[in-house]
Design a protein that fits this description.
- α1 runs antiparallel to α2.
- The chain has 2 helices and no strands.
- It is mostly helical and 68 residues long.
């Protein structure tokens, strides 16, 4: 299950791609650049969320092993 960072990161990536496409269609280099920034930031946030989730899963696994 995705956590908040993963969801928001994926949303920002999509938003960035849309801005880039609109920038291409309207010949607006500023909008395209803004979209690129949003996409990269979204990728970073999604990775942070993935790492956070995997660390949490590992901690849960260790806790279950210790209980048994």
């Amino acid at each position: 299950m995705w956590n908040k960072d993963e969801r928001e990161g994926n949303i920002d990536q999509t938003k960035g791609k849309v801005k880039q496409a609109l920038g291409d269609l309207t010949n607006d280099p500023d909008l395209k650049a803004e979209g690129q920034v949003d996409e990269v930031a979204g990728k970073g946030q999604a990775v942070v969320g993935q790492v956070r989730r995997k660390v949490g899963d590992a901690i849960d696994s260790v806790a279950k092993a210790v209980k048994h």
